Amino acid sequence: MAVLCKSCAGRLIFNPASQKLECKNCGSSYRPEDVEDIYASRDSKYYDTRVYTCGHCGAEVITSDTESSTFCVYCGNPAIVFSRISREYKPDGLIPFKITKEEAISNITKKFMKNPIVPKNIAAKCKPENLRGIYIPYWVINADFTEADYISGEIKRGKQTITKYYSRASETRIRNLPVDGSRILNDDTSLKLEPFYLEDSKEFDEDYLNGFYSNTSDLRYNDLRNSAADRCHKLVAEEVVKSIPKNNRNVKVRDSIYWIDIDDDPIYMMMPVWFFTFMHKGKPYTILVNGQTGKVVGTMPWQNSRVIAIAATIFILITAFISYFFIAAPNGWINEIGQVYLFAMATLIAFGLTILVKGITGLRRIYKNLRLTQSEGIFNYVKKRQA
Amino acid sequence: MNSASIIQVTLVIGVTLLLTSVSYSLFITYLILKKFSDFGDSSCKLNEYAPNGIGYTRMVDDVPSNEKYFLLADYGSDPYSTRQHSIPDVLLKNMEKDKETEF
User: Fold this and answer.
1) Which residues of B touch A239 (CB under 8 A)?
2) Could you tell me the pTM of the whole model?
3) Where are the alpha helices (DSSP H) in A8-133?
4) Cβ within 8 Å of residue B82, ≥6 positions away
5) Average pLDDT score over chain A
6) In angstroms, rounded to a whole number, what is the distance separating the alpha carbons of residues A227 and A218?
7) What's the CA gap between A51 and A213, in Å, rounded?
8) Residue with the larger pLDDT of the pair A176 and A61
9) Where are the domains of chain A?
10) Taking a C-beta distance cutoff of 8 angstroms, is the pair A349, B16 a contact?
11) Which pLDDT belongs to residue A84?
12) Is there a contact between A170 and B54 if contact means CB atoms under 8 Å apart?
């Protein structure tokens, strides 16, 4: 619950810039570890929180102080109501916010707002009241991890392409791996927020939560095992592919088996994240900022008309250039200059067709990221939780 | 070359050129969206969480295409199944909560 200023009994808020609790009334400041919370017991495994529920998406948002929530930080809907006071398990530690709200806004503005394709009205929405700081639950684990992979690669021999197969098995000791402890936040999104540097972590003290929201871990042990195993598999598979001889192309992990054993007592941590939520054309968007490093994660909607205009201009310019190149070939294609032209043209076309795949794959990835930003994943997780 | 084959060649060249233009414009559009709209790719690598690196226990090149089955046979069972663990209170509570909702 809220801690009050010793001088004037005003409300204390944690300021990431000074790393101190500051009183809005008289300006006094205190180190969190020096402030005694009369409601909290040092030895208690629990701390009290206020739970708000969103009437739109069902998400539960928790505050540890008296700040009332005015809209859902996950879906941006204002239909959020105070639900209850809840006793939650104390995390083992947390990384305090280092990035202030102003810095988070500045980072988002720098990345998204000064470019020609993001709709101008979104810039107006990027203001302090649309930004919320939330402590997201994470589990930091140590583990033994065993993985076996069956990999294929292609080698060119003259005009022939031969498929070769490789087998790899490994045992890896994993240390301090953070695993997202919330089923609401999509694992792909939380992965992008990393790295979090554990050197800055502090023993849990609820005073750090003043002025911020928090969420508690809703994972079961098997969920944690599965998330951790999937995470380790991605990291190991990426590394194993590098062990395949370099003359292989199109290297793919065809099949994998992996097992994880998490050490006892994984550390329950809270990591700081700024959520910028807004609605655009009836769809909710959530841009995240790592509250420790300032890394911005998310995909902004773009103005279709501008992107189509840019793509069409590029298309016309390239078509005109290639056509001119083709028509302007001197004296047909059979003399020396003509042959150089032909070679240049063939290269241009071959390269163009190669990047076609890259372009399509890249665009698909951006659309996937856009869907993640549109909070659909979060909605699904919430719905699952409600069920 | 008769006129039919000239038309065919021109068509093939035209379609190829068109496809090339589409490729370039798609790729450049992707680069523009990537630069201006999409941020925050995952950048963490294994060495950040495994200071000792990968301990390879098998590293065989050019195996037969049925090697997959031998690999699955050798590594298909949980090597850690006999280890016992204590589960943190928070995770236990969540398991109980889920059981309650099931009924």
Assistant:
1) 45-46, 54
2) 0.79
3) 101-108, 120-125
4) none
5) 81
6) 13
7) 10
8) A176
9) 304-369
10) yes
11) 67
12) yes
At A258-280, the pLDDT tens digits run: 999 999 889 999 999 998 878 78
For residue A62, list its beta bridge partners.
A51, A214
pLDDT mean over A331-346? 69
CA separation for the pair A323, B18 (Å, rounded): 10
* Residue of chain B minimizing CA distance to A287: B39
Where do we find the tokens 């889920």? B98
Q: Quick: pLDDT tens for A308-336.
A: 998 899 889 888 887 777 776 665 555 66
DSSP A99-116: S-HHHHHHHHIIIIITSS
Size of interface A-B (CB pairs under 8 A): 246
Q: Between chains, do B40 and A296 touch, taking CB under 8 Å as contact?
A: yes
**C-alpha distance from residue A158 to each of A155, A354, B47 (Å):** 10, 20, 37
Helix (H, G, I), strand (E, B) or coil at A9: coil
Q: How confident is the model at residue A383 (pLDDT cuts 50, 70, 90)?
A: very low
Say whether residue A155 is in contact with chain B using an 8 A CB cutoff: no
Rounded to an integer, what distance in angstroms lies between the CA atom of residue A213 and that of residue A271? Answer: 11
CB neighbours of B20 closer than 8 A, spacing ≥ 6? A318, A322, A348, A349, A352, A353
Is residue A371 within a helix (H) or strand (E), and if so which, with residue range?
helix A336-373
Please judge whether B54 and A236 are an interchain contact, meaning their C-beta atoms are less than 8 angstroms apart. Answer: yes
Mean per-residue pLDDT of chain B: 83
Q: What DSSP letter does each residue of A229-259 carry, written as one string?
A: HHHHHHHHHHHHHTTS-TT-EEEEEEEEEEE
Q: Residue A358 and residue B27: Cβ atoms within 8 Å?
A: yes
Decide if A319 touches B, using CB distance below 8 A: yes
Pick the residue with more confidence: A55 or A16?
Answer: A16
